[in-house]
Design a protein that fits this description.
The chain is α+β, with helices and mostly antiparallel strands. The protein is built from five helices and seven strands.
């Protein structure tokens, strides 16, 4: 026999050995799945899934903690009394303003990071807090809260400005307790810029 014939016969045999029936393929796959590598792969997949679930649970817990924590809540006061006071709730991530009317109310809520500026207009007895947001789609992009005590309005402005600075610097406020965070914001607000 010459070499060419042997090579041809060998290649024909190799091609025949590579052909499997569907049952043989299923049997080979079942053996592979029951093997060590398949079990190790499944174990790693389970660990990755558990790690992802744990991270998701921690992220949700952090969001719930931040969303339910009111740092400061102040209400308006009218002379001699106010039947429907407006309220400002300052949280870690957002501000909620409740404007009450005689038989109805409006609720405005916006993120701290979307506040472009905040002003205080003082009068003889009370002050007005003016919050300018990037997200309002009304005729004007500001919301005004009247009849606030001046010291409360100044304190609210300082807290909001401090939170804005924290958000711009991407500082996570959930690591602080409410008291620690307010103390840090008070420290920050003693600078000349924020008074």
């Amino acid at each position: 026999m010459d070499i060419k014939t042997i090579i041809r016969k060998k290649s024909v045999v190799d091609e025949q050995e590579k052909l499997y029936t569907q049952q043989e393929v299923n049997d080979l796959l079942q053996k592979k799945e029951s093997g060590f590598f398949y079990k190790a792969k499944q174990l790693l997949d389970n660990r990755a899934t558990n790690t992802r679930k744990t991270k998701d649970k921690a992220a949700v817990a952090k969001l719930v903690k931040q969303s339910n924590r009111i740092l400061l809540s102040i209400s308006s006061h009218a002379f001699p009394f106010d039947l429907s006071p407006n309220t400002i709730n300052i949280e870690d991530e957002r501000i909620t303003i409740i404007k009450r009317h005689l038989l109805s109310s409006e609720v405005h809520s916006f993120d701290i990071k979307n506040i472009s500026n905040i002003f205080i207009n003082r009068t003889f007895l009370f002050s007005q807090l003016v919050i300018i947001s990037k997200t309002f789609e009304e005729k004007s992009n500001e919301i005004k809260i009247r009849n606030l005590r001046t010291n409360e309005a100044i304190f609210a402005r300082r807290i909001i400005e401090g939170l804005r600075l924290f958000k711009n610097k991407k500082i996570d406020t959930s690591n602080y307790t409410k008291e620690e965070l307010i103390a840090k914001l008070k420290e920050l607000s003693t600078t000349e810029i924020m008074t």
